[in-house]
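PT: before anyone asks, these are the final sequences, not the draft ones from last week. 715 residues across everything. Please model them as a single complex and drop the result in this thread when it's through.
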Amino acid sequence: MSASAYPCNSIGLRGVAGVLPPRRLSLGELFARGWLLSEPQRLAELGFSHVHVADETHDLRWLAREAGHRAMADAALAPAEIDLLIWASALDSDHRMPGATDDEGADPQHPLLSAFRYPSGWLQDELQLDRARAVAVAQQGCASLFAALCIAHSTLLAESDIRHVLCVGVDVLPPESPREVLYNLISDAACGVVVSRDCDRDRWLGYHQLSKGYYWDTPHKQKEILAAYFPTARVAIAEALDRARLRPTDVDVVLPSGVQPASWPILLDLAGIPEDRLYRSSATFGHSIVADNFILLDDARRRGQLAVGQRLLLFTYGFGSSWCCLLLEH
Amino acid sequence: METVFVTGASGAIGPQLLAALARELPTARFAVLLRPEATSTESRIFGLRKRVNKLAGFEGAAACDLHERLMPVTGDVLQPDCDILKQRGRLVAATTCIVHAAADTRFRAGEAEQHATNVEGTRNVLAWGRSCERLRRFVLVSTTCVAGTRTGTIAEEPITERPAFVNHYERTKWEAEQLGVKSGLPLTIVRLATCAGSQNSGVVERLGGLHWSMQWMIRGLVPMVPGRPECPVDLISTELAGGLIARAAAPQNQRPLEVCHASTGTAAPTLAELLATLRQLFSSRDDAWRRGQIAAPSIVSAQTFAAFRRTVETSGDLLFRSVISSVDAFLPALLYPKIFATSTAEQIWGGPLPRPDWRGLLDKVLNYCLATNWGRTKGGVPLHA
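LR: through. Structure below.
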């Protein structure tokens, strides 16, 4: 199955914000805690050095709130101007607000009702997005925010009274969870993206997503997923460019996800995109599940690394399995 | 009476070679060198006779004759004089032709092992040949891999200038050819392209890099292959390999030195065509392929494949190391496009070489591999990593 949105030059990313919790743990510290599956040296050779980890103060709530606030600030929008809020998380645990006690009081309904403590509603309330509708995107893995943006874009096309959509992607691994997934090191992080009509910042050129249900059973298909990553990514990127009537060499900047740094030159070669187009951030944070590409986009925008008119390519893969490519014009 | 001394009878083309020799030289006897192993020589020669009779289509008297014509000789090419103790005197006097097909064809085998079998083994068999009083022809079974990294048209002549090689197999087989050329024996070098299997049955006597790559590929575990899309992939059947060697061993062949190619020449499919065909074949057998859920491997440059190999090696993933090992064994040569001339082979053959439908050949070979789970199930050939 594939889903594509065609270019619409009036829609763009008006506000972008990436947020990492301040607590950093090195490979050695992670290893000492038993949070790595591989030797630290091996992960260092794969390009990883440390991760950012949420703590009691800088938890899922803080990350989501900061991402929402900063994205709206970047977009110069007030909460009342947001028409739609989309919460995006890959992990099931991040679709339920932390802090609930299942045995509270004598109410027999409490445990069941606690399952409906949704963070999208909490964030809408927290940010006072009182005019907005709130929805959430799940089951897209690391592609959750890409899916949220696609829905935002489609909604803007479909509903003329919607002007600004705030997408907030956040994932925090459960406490004591291993920080390594398929040779990638995982950070907690969040990002906020405001997708708006009549916007000339990072205008939407196209989006293409290849979803392959064959790979749904991640634990059992992990080897096949690793093998499918490159050839399917190549197809997803090629089709995205083709639909946007762009050639690989038309791409000026590739904003990668945080998966193995060594994999990106390989993917760019497969896609026919010169390696010097790969954006290299001064900050490293491993792989943050949903937020990587947008942390880097925020970084590039704030550091003035992007020139007007440059074409940006953002790519990610999400367990589920989906390969997603977003094309923007800065 | 012709007596043909044959090495490598239990190898990838051995049974087809013996069947072709038995048909080509209907009155000859065949001294088949078998290494001393736990399984008795008698038991192995019994199985080999049965197999050769089937492949040659011998029944009745012809089948009984083969029992007399196919003689086991215990020995080892790794030893001086092939370590032939019994029958030595009789063989020295009787042998009129030697077909040396024994080789270590494992592309990823260690340098020492490859050198021992392919170079020193050939040296020993050549020495044995020089002691044979009536020897009229020494057929050295070689490989098109000896052309190494050369590109373009490869002539049917000795490659005297050492090319660059991508693995020890290529180099050691080239060195074996040099020994043959310098031996002064009446020599025919038959260079074989990649033997996919039997064009009649799809049977693969010994699985190689091609077959293991197909196994990983149909499981969706090969993300990329090194090569050029336009590079020819020279696939032949074991029937063509055995048939051409047998004709090269025939008495009418009297040239002092010749080289020929068992190759599909200009009819070889390109790497892109091969992958497209495999995709079709997999799609007809596997639902995930049919539904487009598994993407065919990408064809990448040597540099990109090396980068991918580094990530696999760094990760330490054992499965992907095996995948890379199989792909590495078969495919790096596809970075160096070449066409093998076949005019001498056609002279020996007596006309144009048969060009099997390579798609049909792959279809049958894939059937065989699937039916035997790549040699693991009963009825299949043993595993040879």
